[in-house]
Amino acid sequence: MTSTTLPLFYIQPRPLQAALHDKLSLAEQAGYGFAGATNAVPLVAGEIAVACRHYPIVFTEGALPSPVAVLGLRGQENLFVDADGQWRAGHYVPAYIRRYPFIFMENTDRGEYTLCIDEAAASVVEGRDHPLFNDDGSPSALSRSALDFCRDYQNQHAHTMEFMRALAEADVLVENRADITLPDGQRLSLSGFKIIDEAKFNKLPEDEFLRWRANGWLPLVYFHFVSIGTWSTLLDRIQPSAAGTEPGKAADSQ
User: Fold this and answer.
1) In which band, very low, low, confident or very high, does the pLDDT at 154 lie, cut at 50, 70 and 90?
2) CA-CA distances (angstroms) from residue 4 to 15, 66, 74, 110, 254?
3) Which InterPro entries did the record assign (predicted)?
4) Would you say residue 35 lies in a domain?
5) What does pLDDT average to over the chain?
6) 181 is a domain residue
7) Most CB within 10 Å of its CB: which of 1, 91, 97, 175?
8) In a domain? residue 251
9) Sign for the pseudo-dihedral over CA of 164, 170, 174, 175
10) Residues of the chain with pLDDT > 90: what percent?
């Protein structure tokens, strides 16, 4: 996605305010159906250690790439969300998805972030079962928890972007694609992403290597390498589709 579009999933984000949202609640069993047609989602540094055991982690294209978890091999395919909108048991749910329908959005004039909610989300409903505000107009425990989660996510995002700048400046990212042939002969191709070139990484100057170690970036590189082994997990879960299915492309969003 480009900087002129809304972040992935978000349709109508608006600052959370008692005057607008005091009659609203979150649905009891909202599920993850909103992510069912997304084959990749952003990751932040703090979750890569866990995510690498479940999904391939690759990097988007662009001047400043972002790490993403690959969730499917076809366009608009998420192999970890079932028909009922439930996430596959035993698999990590990325923070970007758990954050929805809340998000921090930047006010560029003030240089600050505001907690917003996607008013178009299916999980945002009228009622008082899980209210966004208390009867006195103060933020509910749910909204305060969402604020803490989004604040932590934003801090993690900033740390992640420092790591991505280091990758870009070191020129260790290379374009890649996944070409897969299913047992029935159908060919799938996932493109539009980059990986860390291990040979280039191993040639980092010693002082740069030590700087990466001091900043805690080296484990993120190794977790990325570990994650490459999970491509087979996606292949095990994929089912043959009708002819003419579009090949996938890694999502790019913040």
Assistant:
1) very high
2) 19, 17, 25, 19, 12
3) SapC
4) yes
5) 89
6) yes
7) 97
8) no
9) positive
10) 73
In terms of residue numbers, what domain contains 29?
15-245
Q: Which residues of 32-46 are buried (b: 16+ CB within 10 A; e: fewer)?
A: bbbbbebbbbbbbbb
Q: Which two tokens stand for residue 118?
A: 């996607």
CA trace torsion 108, 111, 113, 114 (10° rounding): -70
Read off the pLDDT of residues 76-121 as tens digits, 9 standing for 90 and up: 899 999 999 999 999 999 999 999 999 998 876 666 889 999 999 9
Nearest partner of 34 among 15, 16, 55, 10, judged by Cα: 10
d(CA 106, CA 3): 13
For every residue of 76-135, DSSP letters joined together read T--TTB-TTSPBPTTS---HHHHHTTEEEEEETTTTEEEEEEETT-TTEEESSSSBSB-T
Beta carbons of 91 and 54 less than 8 angstroms apart: yes
Write down the pLDDT at residue 187.
Answer: 83
Per the structure, the count of domains in the chain is 1
Q: CA-to-CA distance for 194 and 65, rounded, in angstroms?
A: 8
Q: How many CB atoms lie within 10 A of CB 112?
A: 9
Distance of CA 251 to the CA centre of its chain: 9
pLDDT in tens, 40-51: 999 999 999 999
The answer to the question of residue 210 being in a domain is yes
Position 3 confidence tier, pLDDT thresholds 50, 70, 90 = very low
Q: Of the given ranges (56-65, 180-189, 206-215), which has the lowest mean pLDDT?
A: 180-189
Q: Assess contact for 76 and 38: CB atoms under 8 A.
A: yes
Q: Indicate the pairing of strand 13-15 with strand 24-26.
A: unpaired
